[in-house]
Each structure stands twice: as C-alpha cells, then as structure tokens.
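Human: My hope is that you can spare some time for a protein that puzzles me. I am handing you a single protein, as its sequence and its fold in token form. Could you go through the record with me and say what the backbone is doing? Take your time, and here it is.
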Amino acid sequence: MNNKITAITGNEAVAYAIKQINPDVMAAYPITPQTALIQKFSEYVADGLVDTEFVTVESEHSAMSACVGAAAAGGRVMTATAANGLALMFEILYVASSNRLPIIMPMVNRALSGPINIHCDHGDSMAARGSSWIQIYSENVQEAYDNTIQAVRIAEHMQVRLPAMVMYDGFITSHGIECVEFLDDDKVAKFVGEYPPRYPLLDINHPVTYGPLDLYDYYFEHKRQQAEAIKNAQKIVLEVAEEFKQISGREYGLFEEYQLSDAERAIVVLSSTAGTTKQVVDELRVKGEKVGLLKLRLFRPFPYKEIAKALSHLKAIAILDRSDSFGGFGGPLFTEIRSALLDSEKIPQNVNYIYGLGGRDINQTDITSIYTDLEKIVETGKVGERVKYFGVRE
C-alpha cells in the first residue's frame, strides 16, 4: 500500500497501523467498541502478515500483565482496550510506567459502568490521567492512525521510556468510516525503526531485577524520575511530529489552533467533537463573528504554558469535558486549563460544559448555543454558573 487513500473504520485503520509497526508481542482481550481492532489484527497474525506473538488472555488485567512481562524481556509490545477493560488493567498500568516500559495502547473511549453503557465518553482515559502514561487524543480516523505510529517513537525515546495511550472516540471514530491516507509499509517500518531494548530480562550477561520492593529509601526518587521522563515527552512529541510530517505531509503539534489567532470567544475540546466545532466556527465566521477553537492533542504531559499563551488573548472560553470529576470543581480538562491560566497577565472568562456522557450526542446547534452563551458573558462580564451540565434533562 503506497500512500493509498482508503475508506475504512477507525478500528481497522489502527489495526493496519499496528500491522505496519509489526510489534514483537501483542496481548489483548476484546471489549466493545475495541473488539474489531483486535479481531482485524488477529487476522493479520493468522495470515502470516506480521511476526507478532499474539497472546490471547482471559482478561484485560492479564493482557497488561503479559505486556509488562514481554516488554521487560526486551520486546516491542502493544495492546488495546476500552472503558471497563482499562479499569481492570488499572493496577498494572502503574507497574508498566514505574518500570519504564514503552508499551503502546490504542484506547477506544467508552463510558465506564455503571449502569452498563457501551458508548463514548472520556471517563475511562481521564481516570488514568495520573498513571504516568502519555496520553494522545485523536479527532478522527486519520489522526488515530497517525498518532498510533507516532506514539511508538515517542514512548521508546531514551529521554522518555514510558507507555503511551492513543485515544479515539468509541463508535463515533472506531466504527465510523472515513477516507484515510495510509503510508507505505516501508516508510512506517523505517520511521519506527528497530526497537532499542533497555535492561532486558533475557540479557543473561547483564542480569537485572524487575518488580522489587521499593520502600521509602528510594521510592520517592524513582517517582521523581518518572515525573521528569513524562515532562521530557512534550518536546519529543514535537520532534517526532516534525519527522512524521516529512514522510506524510501531515502536521501535528501539542494542540491545534483553529481560527484562534484573532478570535474573541473560543471552545476548548478533545477528540471528535472538535470536528463538529470546526463546522460551527466556519459558519459563524461567515457571519462576522470572531470565534475559534483549541483542540488539545496531548493531554499528558499537559502543555500548560503553551495553552495559556494560546488562550490568554481571548475574552471568554468554554471548556468542554466529556467526563466528570465527581466531587471536584468541574471536569478534568476544565481544572487543568483554569489552573494553566492563573499565571497569565490577562485571564479570559471561563466556563465548563460537561457534555456527552454515555454517548449523548452533541450537534452543531448545541455548539452554536455555547458560542452564544460566551457572547453573553463577554457583553455582561458575568459567568453565572461556572460548571454546567450541557444537554442533560433536568
């Protein structure tokens, strides 16, 4: 396949990216709406199109445990999950990052139980935002494919050596069919390169220990090293994006500014809702309204200085969260953005909209009404209710 444009689902596109990456080991368990990804990749394994050792396990906890073992042994390792599967992995997420194992995991965003819900929100990945995994969000199928490939280079960089999640929205992106431009197999293979193992268990000439007891003598120092490593990831994300641009022609950064430079009002959002927002921005711009969008791509590490700089000139911003921090003051994205703005000389009026939980739709009319709300805030200088639940039936 030589830079061929194909109509394909998000899950199939990510499965193809994994095929091109050709990891040493993939351990995974199916869960809606991720199942088709693993199913498609298993076909590549069965047909002999990859060299991957595909490990079928009895649970997501076992999947991540197998990934940790394979990565510690010195292999390039991948998995995939969603929602409750991520929750079941939770203990081992910390084991993976604490051992500095660059496992790559496409994560199909889905609401966490209960009640049981198989549709999209971001409560699953946001629950893991403190696990020391790099987190990259994707607006559409093309970005899910591109981000999966780039994540390998980011996670494996010697200044990082941390696992990475690549998020895309359940059903909206995972099952939606879009036109995607695939890179040539050889280009991807050259881009990701050979995996550089570090302290592999199978190197018998240099024996190492994984999983030791680590009490107050050294635990704090090891956590500080993790903090520095994930901080380093931000500059590596940009370096890898620049290299990826050379082979793809597609440009990526920490976030995307859409009609933002001269805007007075803006929305900040993650993933597929950004596409809907762009359409609204275009329509309102035709009417002469100075509106814009900031679509965050990298959530962990959080690029707080760059975001504050991009937003500080605005008069009012709406921060949209597809998850809630129950008992906190607003959703996760809102609290991060609001905190980032505190060092700005000028802080725009800001309001949080928690929306779309459990897959509830948000459309262009809804987005337009949010820009209208921002216009009223600019005119009156009053925010009113700071944290709003948008689209819920009272």
Summary: The chain has two domains: 5-248, 255-390. Residues 255-390 form a domain with the Rossmann fold fold (CATH 3.40.50.920). The CA atoms of residues 238 and 266 lie 24 Å apart.
